[in-house]
Each structure stands twice: as C-alpha cells, then as structure tokens.
Specification:
Blueprint lengths: L3 E6 L9 H11 L6 E6 L5 H8 L5 E4 L25 E4 L2 H7 L3 H13 L3 E6 L3 H5 L3 H18 L5 H7 L3 E4 L13 H17 L3 H6 L2 E4 L7 H5 L6 E4 L6 H19 L4
Parallel strand pairs: 1-2, 1-8, 2-3, 3-4, 4-5, 5-6, 6-7, 7-8
The chain binds 2-phosphoglycolic acid (PGA).
C-alpha cells in the first residue's frame, strides 16, 4: 500500500520571522487521524524556524533544492550534508530550477544521488511543457526525464542502486509545466495516465519493485477545490502544492480530502 503525501512547496516566500508561525498554523489546521504524510518545504533560511515550529506535530520539513557535490567552491550553494538536522525531505529537479538554473536530467540525477546518500527523502519533479503536450509528446518527454535522471543517479553510484533508491522513500511529482502557478490544472485522468507512464519508465530501467511501489504526486495549480479529482485516481498518491500551500484554509481542505483517501486505503477500500 502506497502512502498518501501532501507536500507544500513555499518557493521564494516567507522569512525567518514569519515562517514558523505559518508552519505551526498549517500543522494545527491539518491535524487529522488518517495517515497522511505532511511535508512543508520553506526557503533554506527558514528551515530552522520551521523545524522548531513543527517539532512534535508530525509534519516533516523539506528543502527545495540541494547541490550535486558534497562541498567545495560553490558560492551560494547548499549541500546535502548541510541539511542534517534541518530537513528530512528535499525537492529535486523542480521545473523552475530547470528554467532558471539550467538544471538538466543529468544534474538532477546527481542531486538525487546526494540526497539519497544523506538519508533525505527526495521528491523528484518531472513534467512536460505545453508545446510538448500539444504535439502529443508529453509521455515521451516524461519517460525521457525519468530515464535520464535514473541513469545519472546510477552513474554516480557505487554499490546497489536499486536497494538504495528503493529504500530512500523516493517520491515522484508529476508537474506539467503549463499547470504550475497558472490556475490551469491537468485533468485527473491525464495525471493518472502519466503516473502509469512514470511507473513503467522506472520499471524499464530495471527498478521493477520501485516502479510498483513509488508514490506519484500530482502538482500544478492544486487547490482544496480540485484535489479530489486527483485523489480519486488510484494511481495518484497525493500532491505537491505551491501557491495554495501558503494558505492554511487551502491546506486544511487539501489534507482533509487526502485523509479520506488514506483512510480508504488503510481500510483496503482504495
Ligand atoms: P502551484 O505550484 O501549486 O503554485 O501551481 C506547484 C509547484 O510548483 O510545485
């Protein structure tokens, strides 16, 4: 049974002065019985405040990025070992970083390796551009991203790749780029079809067990009003939420709906 995960990506919002209070409010408003894994990913400089605010709440803390090297002359960067004690999850390969920082599948695979080595649970983002979807190439693009990332991950590895990545608790977020921050979400059916494609692409690299077990989240203009369309799909295991994740009311609604799915799964009903 795959877990249900709701991850908040705060992007470049909040300050160390206000992040803790917002995190505490969201934690309180999303406290439910059902086993939904909640994660908040604030900016690096807010990690300590959010960690302190979330202590004892059951909500985990994630970083939004990590460097592909362990240390060295990389001005302004943050390595995986530096996140020890601050974060237990990390987002890698977000499309805004592909767009603004030139991240490639190869680089994202190396970041994934560093995250796994450091014991961080990675949320690996994939997703097509609008022109790629309109050209009927969305599935091929995402398949290529999965393959490229896992190949680079494997190349950066010494030892048993399958066991390592499988045990890391890795999660994939399918985020069509045209749906991020636009108010234009994918349909539940399209997201579910892509989740199948992602699982098959992982299995095709030889990681057959991981392909079946990996949670796949949808991301892109998720709100309390539309989360149900995604969680109604058995192949979708939660959401990576951007804009709405800064609003406690929205997060309360999203996590409440996720709780229904988690409870149904725990009861063997879905
Ligand atoms: P959005 O962002 O919910 O604001 O569309 C999602 C994301 O980028 O993870």
């Amino acid at each position: 049974m795959r877990p249900v995960v709701i991850a908040a990506n705060w992007k470049m919002h909040t300050t160390p002065a206000d992040a803790g209070e917002l995190a505490a409010t969201i934690a309180a408003r999303t406290r439910i019985e059902a086993p939904v894994e909640r994660v908040i990913c604030p900016p690096f400089v807010c990690l300590a405040a959010v960690r302190d605010a979330l202590s004892g709440t059951g909500v985990a803390v994630g970083a939004q990025n990590v460097h592909h090297e362990l240390g060295g002359a990389y001005t302004g960067e943050i390595s995986a070992p530096m996140l020890a004690g601050l974060a237990s999850w990390v987002i890698v390969g977000h499309s805004e970083r592909r767009r603004d920082a030139g991240e490639t599948d190869e680089l994202i695979g190396r970041k994934l390796r560093r995250a796994v080595e450091a014991g961080l649970r990675p949320i690996v983002c994939v997703g097509e551009q609008l022109d790629e979807r309109e050209a009927g190439r969305a599935e091929a693009v995402v398949r290529g991203q999965v393959h490229g990332i896992l190949t680079a991950f494997g190349d950066a590895t010494i030892g048993d790749v399958a066991a390592d990545l499988g045990e890391s608790g890795v999660v994939i977020a399918y985020e069509p780029v045209w749906a991020i921050g636009t108010g234009r979400n994918a349909t539940g059916a399209d997201a579910a079809a892509m989740a199948d494609t992602i699982r098959a692409a992982i299995a095709a690299t030889g990681l057959v067990d991981l392909g079946a077990a990996v949670p796949v989240l949808y991301g892109g203009s998720v709100t309390a009003a539309n989360i149900g369309e995604f969680l109604a799909e058995p192949g979708i295991d939660g959401a990576l939420v951007g804009g709405a994740s800064l609003k406690p009311d929205e997060m309360a609604g999203i996590v409440a709906r996720a709780g229904l799915t988690a409870a149904a799964r725990a009861g063997g009903a879905g």
